[in-house]
Design brief:
The chain is an alpha+beta fold. The protein is built from 1 helix and 3 strands, in the order βαββ. Helices cover 20% and strands 13% of the residues.
Length: 54
């Protein structure tokens, strides 16, 4: 199980001046963590495909 922080994303909540597009905000969760094999990281917290502090 991993957790993801998408950062500020251009949504109703993040606002139109947020630095990340929806696609950029979803990248770590959808295109990276979702496709890891069973040897991938576990129990981490990630943003931009990098571990960050809890």
């Amino acid at each position: 199980m991993n957790a993801v922080c998408p950062g500020r994303v251009q949504t109703d909540m993040g606002g139109s001046d947020a630095p990340n597009t929806v696609e950029e905000g979803a990248d770590t969760a959808v295109f990276w963590l979702e496709t890891l094999d069973e040897d991938g990281p576990n129990g981490g917290y990630f943003r931009d495909r990098q571990p960050i502090a809890w």
